[in-house]
């Protein structure tokens, strides 16, 4: 069993894969290192003396600067490391974007919608236009379960607190996300549930939805009916009759869209789980499929790696705008750009935003960046896409679904039970988490500490995702969890 890893030949630190005791002597390539302190799993130790002011190198790149002299064998963490990042930057395009070699197609058992799109679930969704009808939506969901028969995979409501008393971008965000979910192919039928007097009422929302199939999308305004629950159930019975006609059939995996997100990361996330998702992403893209990477603040410090992989200067310019736009969002609210790692991140061994970001972007694999999406924008280009959304788990995962992801891959070192509007695969970075939270974790990448390669595990993850796409429920689905959250930035009236 491996006890530590030096990720890149130029690294000045290594990462403990298991807890290491002070006094342990390690042979690291041609160098002998004696640990001066206990090193927790996922945390870093110095491979050489690092003088104050010198960069700390991990992943072959700087993850911060030494705040004081750090001796070889010393623990390297927040007490002696600070970020080396600045504010809004100018960038130069230095292309490093070799395309992936194509690989053979594979099939999954999915649903083919009347408009030609593929889906991995055949559910009926209840979408409130405003938070005022959330409890009505929940009541409808409970009573509508009698219509979950045959080919209907589930009937779910997606309550949220917005749709009224919003201004500017917030109001637009709500309308775009609601319209995106209404149009999502995983929903075989949709009931749009309005109140009647809200800013984002059904008549206002319809232009955002665009053309729709009247058999697939039904509308109900609660203020216009005596019995909103009874009338809603009648509409859902109609929707179930329509959606129940769909059957799973073989579909190319090149039609899959998979979102990629991490949360509650630890020091192993960038070594096990995130690189495995990157290997998956490359495999799917090599077969003509699409992946979407989001949480822009967790690109800060690693953004140039993504920028140089942009397939052309237009996509590079969009990526620069994506990154600097989010930095300006932070500063416009008088917030520090680079104070990002959470208490859980730090406890798991992540010291700075650069440390977090370089690990986070491992999920992108090696494919060229083919597209950049604004918040709420549906994906239209195959390959690797970058999506504008914050790091918040629920907001970012909802954004991935809204942009068209059929499935979300969520890597974690700390664990979380949350879900999103689409199947959300929880991928652990360490085996202890996978063993402790079997009711949360779907796929364990902690095994890389013991044996195997990223490429081998990436193939296993790919096979698992095809099972999910073909109907296998993930743990959050088994628990009945379905969440959604909308990005809020401004004033509430």
Characterise this structure.
The chain folds into three domains: 4-82, Archaeosine Trna-guanine Transglycosylase, Chain: A, domain 4, CATH 2.30.130; 123-245, Ribose 5-phosphate Isomerase B, Chain: A (3-Layer(aba) Sandwich), CATH 3.40.1400; 252-478. With 493 residues, the protein is α/β, with parallel strands linked by helices. It has 13 helices and 23 strands. The longest helix has 20 residues, at 313-332.
Annotate the secondary structure layout.
Blueprint: E1 4-5, E2 13-16, E3 25-28, E4 31-34, E5 44-46, E6 55-58, E7 61-66, E8 75-76, E9 81-82, E10 107-112, E11 118-119, E12 123-128, H1 134-143, E13 154-157, H2 168-182, E14 187-194, H3 202-209, E15 217-221, H4 228-243, E16 249-252, E17 257-262, H5 273-286, E18 290-293, H6 303-307, H7 313-332, H8 343-347, H9 353-360, E19 369-373, E20 383-387, H10 393-402, E21 407-412, E22 424-428, H11 431-436, E23 443-444, H12 454-469, H13 475-478
Parallel strand pairs: 12-13, 12-14, 14-15, 17-18, 17-21, 18-20, 19-20, 21-22, 22-23
Antiparallel strand pairs: 1-2, 2-5, 3-4, 5-8, 6-7, 7-9, 10-11, 10-16
Helix pairs in contact: 1-4, 2-3, 2-10, 5-12
Entry summary:
By secondary structure, this protein is α/β, with parallel strands linked by helices. It is built from 13 helices and 23 strands. A 7-stranded parallel sheet has the order 19-20-18-17-21-22-23, with helices on both faces. A 4-stranded antiparallel sheet has the order 1-2-5-8, with no helix packed on it. Strands 13-12-14-15 form a 4-stranded parallel sheet, with helices on both faces.
